[in-house]
Design a protein that fits this description.
Structural class: alpha/beta
Largest sheet: 6 strands, mixed
CATH superfamily of the largest domain: NAD(P)-binding Rossmann-like Domain
Pfam family, one: XdhC_CoxI
Radius of gyration: 24 Å
Protein name: TRASH domain-containing protein
Shape: elongated
InterPro entries: MoCofactor_Util/Proc (IPR052698), TRASH_dom (IPR011017), XdhC_CoxI (IPR003777), XdhC_Rossmann_dom (IPR027051)
Strand content: 15-25%
Order of helices and strands: HEEEHEEEEHEEHEHHEHEEEEH
Organism: Paractinoplanes tereljensis
CATH class of the largest domain: Alpha Beta
Number of strands: 15
Length: 309
């Protein structure tokens, strides 16, 4: 199982799909999970692998979606109702799961989000080459020239070679931030020649880069990437424009209506019996009572609810 999950982690990373890698790090008997068991949880709430029975999975699904939203790792402690807790661990999320068989487990959740994608046009120029080199150091993933779909930003550093073509390609791909490396005068001429709409022009940064008094090619690259990192972190360039999105931004991996399908995000509801958060899905116990749909953490809660109505 560990080999299969490791292969799946590699595959999902290569596909730039957001997911959570969950690993059981501690377990108390009786429980079906043992330390080292692991799984991946996708943005639709589906689980591949094993981190415990169906009751534990319910808590893992909900917590995993939270980590996809904020990008932070989490130690999830799942305790049966009325059980003595593990020794304190600062930063752990404790959930009481009334349908556990009596054991308690701790699961480390690590959200795996795609690295920001950066397009670089003009890698044959000294500045373009420096941008590509520094981008790798900053853990930005670079794309092939003109393959800009899904990019958070594009640096146009052709210094007069195909700059207009690169800008047009980036705009058509929905890239939210296009950094043009050029003087103020040439930047104005390039943008005027393109005949851009107001919306398109707002996405282009003429004479890109923060003012750090840069002189060398590497310093110019630093100033350009500093501006891009700033805008990515402040949300301006966190994701491509809607027409070109290949991935949901973190803020969109949230609670939505409808059953989750491959590639869709999931929604969570509250089990009306035990109060647990439940991720809606085809394999989740469900019942329709008086025309209203309800979902439950386990079959026991569902049967109890239906019997009481």
């Amino acid at each position: 199982m560990a080999t299969l999950i490791a292969s799946r982690v590699h595959e999902l990373t290569a596909q730039r799909r957001p997911f959570v890698h969950a690993t059981v790090v501690r377990a108390q008997q009786p429980t079906s999970a043992v330390p080292g068991d692991d799984a991946v949880i996708l943005a639709d709430g589906s689980i591949e692998g094993f981190v415990g029975g169906v009751c534990a999975e319910t808590s893992v699904r909900a917590a995993a979606l939270d980590t996809l939203r904020d990008g932070k790792t989490l130690l999830l402690r799942v305790l049966p109702d009325g059980a003595a807790s593990f020794p304190e661990a600062p930063g752990a999320l404790v959930v009481v799961n009334p349908c556990l068989s009596g054991g308690a487990i701790e699961i480390f959740l690590r959200p795996m989000l795609p690295r920001p994608l950066l397009g670089v046009s003009g890698t044959a120029t000294p500045i373009g080459a420096a941008v590509a080199e520094l981008a790798a150091f900053l853990d930005l993933e670079t794309t092939n020239p003109m393959a800009y779909a899904g990019a958070s930003a594009v640096v146009v550093a052709g210094l007069g070679r195909d700059d207009e073509k690169a800008i047009r390609a980036a705009l058509d791909a929905g890239v939210p931030l296009i950094a043009l490396v050029a003087s103020h005068t040439r930047s104005a001429a390039v943008l005027d020649a393109l005949g851009l709409t107001d919306e398109e022009r707002a996405r282009v940064r003429p004479h890109a880069g923060l003012d750090i008094g840069a002189r060398t090619h590497k310093e110019i690259a630093l100033s350009v990437l500093a501006e891009i990192v700033k805008e990515i972190r402040t949300g301006v360039a966190s994701a491509p424009a809607p027409a070109a999105r290949s991935l949901l931004p973190i803020s969109d991996i949230s609670e939505r209506s409808g059953n989750p399908a491959a590639g869709a995000s999931a929604r969570t509801v509250v089990d009306p019996v035990c109060g647990m958060r439940v991720v809606v899905g085809d394999d989740v116990p469900q019942a329709v009572v008086d025309g209203v749909e309800y979902w439950f953490c386990c079959v026991g809660c569902r049967d109890s609810f239906v019997a009481g109505r």
